Amino acid sequence: MIMTEKTDLAIRRIRQDIRSTHAYAIQDSAGMVKLDAMENPHRLPQDLQEKLGQRLGALAFNRYPDGRLNDLRHALAAYAGMPEGFDIMLGNGSDELISLLALACAVPPSAANDFKPASVLAPVPGFVMYAMSAQLQGLAFHGVPLTADFELDEVAMLSAIAQHKPSITYLAYPNNPTANLWDDAVIEHIILAAGEQGGLVVMDEAYQPFSSKSYIDRLARHSHVLLLRTLSKFGLAGVRLGYMIGPQALIAEIDKVRPPYNISVLNCECALFALENKQVFAAQAIDLRAQRAMLLEALANLPGVQAYPSDANMILLRVADAQKTFEGMKSHQVLVKNVSKMHPLLVNCLRLTVGTADENRLMLTALNESL
Q1: Residue 178 CB burial class (10 angstroms; 0-12, 13-18, ≥19)
Q2: Helix axes 265-276, 278-300, angle to 10 degrees
Q3: Which one, of 170, 185, 173, lies nearest residue 225 by Cα?
Q4: How many helices and strands, by DSSP H and E, does the chain display?
Q5: What is the SS3 assignment for 300?
Q6: What pTM did the predictor assign?
Q7: pLDDT digits (tens, 9 = 90+) for 57-77
Q8: Domains present along the chain, CATH in parentheses
Q9: CA 289/CA 174 separation, integer angstroms
């Protein structure tokens, strides 16, 4: 039997639903002004690069991570303002935490839950990993469309919660890719409805450094709400460090499915170093918020472009022909994200990361010449 035949037989062992889907796609950005992935464009200052290099070089790579991880948990709790009686769980990026939540809640259908499979519910368009993590763990995913102006459809959300009784309801605050915050009163109604059905609610604050609001001050009101954050947008996308805050008893149960040593000594020390120098990253966030305001003003003056309000380090805009504009910008070495096929509400939409002043100037020139 030749090798390809053996490979084909082995592939049949893989679940059909996995074989029929696609892996998470990452665009080739070589030689491009990279404005497609909501990264913080600022690097560490030279003096901090040298200090961090010395610390990382002194680490015991031959040992598994140790109690230093607890130092990081305490530092993140202090940084976030974690309420009393809550705990914090670390992940290799918030993506891993989303996957672990699905794994922990993958309860098979039974009479105890009305023979319904465990499910995940979220507004759409939204972060693709909510649906992908549900599918990979065998959970049903229920996407509830936003309104035409990307607000929560309260009636539809409450109806879907009552019908599906989701194990997990995700609310991104602000949302990706629409970049907006939702009405606080509507959010509270959804949280209460999900709690009445015995479900969890995850407030995903991936873009918190750029947002005018946070749910952290309201977190202690509920015993079924988790707060999810990442240091990726803070400025450590390459470090892969996410964290989740919730009631101690709830975190203790979810933490049981976390792989041992999921946070490397490198991840841990980089994150601690960044928190010790948080004023540097705070200044970067201030600069990016100012650049966002400048971009929104400039985009408002471009004919044929509709830019939507943003509380994140990205801007969603609608153009006459998203594919043509995307390809035109790419030919000018500016890479953005074409989200026009992600959901019907996003027809002819592009998502732009807020970059440095120079990057934004190049992006505006490329956009203007590609419309």
Answers
A1: buried
A2: 80
A3: 170
A4: 13, 13
A5: helix
A6: 0.93
A7: 999 999 999 999 999 999 999
A8: 3-46+279-370 (3.90.1150.10), 64-276 (3.40.640.10)
A9: 14
